[in-house]
Amino acid sequence: MSYALIEGVTFLIQNETIRRQLHHRSIRRFKPQHLSHQTIQTLLDVAQHTASSMYLQLFSVIHILDPKIRAKIAAMSTQTYLNGPGELFIFVADLHRVAALTKAAQQPLDHLGRMDKFLQASADATLALQNMVVAAESLGLGTVTLGSIQNDAQALIDLLHLPKYTFPLLGLAIGLPDEHPDEKPRMPESLVAFTNRYGEPVPEPDAMTVYNRKVHDYYATRHGNPREETYTDLAVSAATHTPAKRGDLFKVMRRQGFFPES
């Protein structure tokens, strides 16, 4: 919870937006109503008004309306629900505009594909997506963020005709919720929030053990697709396995103009 201190008295800060953020759930099943044009424009406007590194606004958003393109994205991301209702957006880290302006100014592009610029664009795109999520959920809509669009990044780049100096970072599905999934337990604050320097969870050495138990109970008892799994299981799997074509991401990024060798 959030608190404010005014004249020595502590007040609990509560509003509907914060309440929704504290109880965020990913929604994958939507009702068959389309969002209005005005709603979509408002959400895009919110994305554009997100904080941006150096005011460069290094992102683009592609609204996927063609059902054939959606079907291909659903297949490559293995998210079959993308063939159903809801709006689909792809957020792109975009340095292409900067490249075009720099070329027009007859200046070299020597620094454009370097790591710092890619991180700037990635941050811009990610922040814009999250801003859209908060706005959408404040309107009572459901959302799910899709890192799975990177399962075959080259195929998605070709499908969306993405030019050099761009990269598809995340997808976002938005719609009217048609489910109410269980809320996933979050890590204890002692494992993720520190003061002044990074800290190992020495004060609570069993914090991860307790959290593993909560995650196990969540997966074992949730409605739909119950399974036996802990957070440690998820972490070890992520550290020891890479989805087939995600191992090609660095090569794909190189082809898009990022991370030159020199």
Question: Could you explain how this protein is built, in words?
Answer:
By secondary structure, this protein is α+β, with helices and mostly antiparallel strands. The chain is 39% helix and 15% strand. Strand 1 (2-6) and strand 2 form a beta hairpin. The chain is globular, with a radius of gyration of 21 Å. The termini are far apart.
Quickly count the helices.
9
Counting helices, strands and paired strands, the structural category is alpha+beta
Strand order of the largest sheet: 3-4-6-5
Shape annotation: globular
Mean pLDDT: 90
Largest sheet: 4 strands, antiparallel
Which consecutive residue ranges, at least 5 long each, have pLDDT under 50? none
Estimate the strand proportion. Answer: 5-15%
Helical percent range? 25-40%
Give the terminus-to-terminus CA distance.
48 Å
| Order of secondary-structure elements | EEHHEHEHHEHEHHH
Work out the number of β strands: 6
Overall radius of gyration: 21 Å
Features:
alpha+beta, 15% strand, globular
Secondary-structure topology with pairs:
Elements: E1 2-6, E2 9-13, H1 16-22, H2 37-48, E3 59-64, H3 67-77, E4 87-94, H4 96-104, H5 115-138, E5 142-146, H6 153-159, E6 166-175, H7 207-221, H8 231-240, H9 249-255
Antiparallel strand pairs: 1-2, 3-4, 4-6, 5-6
Helix pairs in contact: 2-5
